[in-house]
Amino acid sequence: MTDLGIDHDARLPYYEQLKQLIVREIARDSLEPGHLMPSEAEMCARYEVSRTVVR
């Protein structure tokens, strides 16, 4: 996994990589309390993963 997104060659499952990215964004205050998460479609496009991974 990179800071920019999902590493499609990594052994870590995509859903775990996505979870770590979201946690990192929360820690950096990119996602603040009370704000909405990006939509499913936005997350799929941003991280280049399927809806199954995002769900």
Describe this structure as you would to a colleague.
The protein is mainly α and 55 residues long. The protein has one domain. 47% of the residues lie in helices and 0% in strands. It has three helices and no strands. It is globular. It starts with 13 loop residues before the first helix and ends with a helix.
By secondary-structure content and strand pairing, the structural class works out as: mainly alpha
How would you spell out the order of helices and strands?
HHH
Q: Note the total helix count.
A: 3
Uncertain stretches of 5 or more adjacent residues: none
Largest sheet: none
Number of strands: 0
Portion of residues within helices: 40-55%
- Domain count: the total is 1
Which shape, going by the Cα principal axes? globular
For the record, give the distance between the C-alpha atoms at the N and C termini, rounded to a whole number: 19 Å
Mean pLDDT over all positions: 88
Percent strand equals: under 5%
User: If you compute it from the alpha carbons, what radius of gyration comes out, rounded to the nearest whole angstrom?
Assistant: 11 Å
Q: What is the gist of this entry?
A:
This protein is an all-alpha fold. It has helices spanning 14-27, 40-47, 51-54. The protein is 47% helix and 0% strand.
Features:
single chain; 55 residues; mainly alpha
List the helices and strands and how they pair.
Elements: H1 14-27, H2 40-47, H3 51-54
